[in-house]
């Protein structure tokens, strides 16, 4: 196994993690920003007003993108498991 192959495998795994986390976190950040602007405009300082919409958006993203996320993880592991003999030898 060459160092270049190891670096490629690790970079692929890191990019996969970044992609999967971004799908879940970015919509929550956008909703949190919108709620924060609304709270600043109306001077409402309720903690649940900022927490519940972000939680709901994150759960909806898990529901809608969960199949795609699972498929991407399965593709990466299938690639790794099928190519392990060639990578080692």
Automatic annotation (TrEMBL):
GO terms for biological process: bacterial-type flagellum assembly; protein secretion. It is found in: Cell membrane; Bacterial flagellum basal body. The keyword Signal does not apply. Belongs to the FliQ/MopD/SpaQ family. It is a multi-pass membrane protein. GO terms for cellular component: bacterial-type flagellum basal body; plasma membrane. This is Flagellar biosynthetic protein FliQ. Keywords: Bacterial flagellum, Cell membrane, Cell projection, Cilium, Flagellum, Membrane, Transmembrane, Transmembrane helix. Its main location: membrane. The chain crosses the membrane at residues 13-39, 51-70. It comes from Vibrio ostreae. InterPro entries: Bac_export_3, FliQ. Role in flagellar biosynthesis.
């Amino acid at each position: 196994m060459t160092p270049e192959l190891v670096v490629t495998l690790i970079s692929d795994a890191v990019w996969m993690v970044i992609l999967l986390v971004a799908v879940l976190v970015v919509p929550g950040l956008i909703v949190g920003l919108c709620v924060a602007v609304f709270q600043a405009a109306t001077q409402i300082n309720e903690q649940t007003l900022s927490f519940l919409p972000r939680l709901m958006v994150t759960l909806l993203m898990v529901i809608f993108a969960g199949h795609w996320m699972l498929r991407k993880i399965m593709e990466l592991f299938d690639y790794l498991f099928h190519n392990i003999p060639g990578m080692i030898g």
